[in-house]
Fold this protein.
Amino acid sequence: MAKKIDPKQTKRAMAFELWMDAPNPMVTFFKILDVTPLIKINKKRKLKFNMLLDYCIGKAASGVKEFYILPVGHELVQYDSIAVNTIVKNKEGEVSSCDILFTEDLAKFNQDYLRYTMQVADSCENRDMTDSMVIGTSAIIDTEIDGAVGMNSGIYNNPFIIWGRYKKKLFRYYLTISFQFHHTQMDGAHAGKFLANLQNEINGLQVIYGDKTYGTIHDGKCNEQQII
């Protein structure tokens, strides 16, 4: 559920005054993540890398309360749930947008990810969740990138994460991501906490889920190369 709130009644009151009318209120952080645990689960359990990373993003964000408040237009909106967006290459060769509600149950999140990305790929219609605070993501898997800065549209104020291919160094795998956020929503300390949470969630995922079996997934339609 989403509801409008009075900024003066929140801890973001000063940030609202300072940044809502700023020419560029978006801030971008860059972070190199050690994604070795995700690679190991991907290879062992046949769970998609992007799905695993989206899950960790949702889990990390759920531990930072600032993610539940978002500037929309000139208002502040509070949400009680978080969704993660992924971009899907549809059957017409174009891209569509797919929002997936975050749940701590990895098996459920995986089922939803496969189900809805395939639906979007087949229908060529976006799946938007307006009642959840959506974290945008874009995986540019065709190339390695050192960073990317999202656009400041003045319309889409949601946090946004971009990544390319991961890189292998010795026996570890690393991924550079960019994290863009609206300064009204959070400060640098909150963004830093989120990024630290994200690495912790990646590290802990293999400990928690590495020995569980979710089955081998063969969907045939929405493979890793279709999620960009």
Remarks:
- The chain is about 30% helix and 25% strand.
- Residues 213-228 have pLDDT under 50 and may be disordered.
- The longest strand covers residues 172-182.
- Residues 4 and 39 are 40 Å apart (CA to CA).
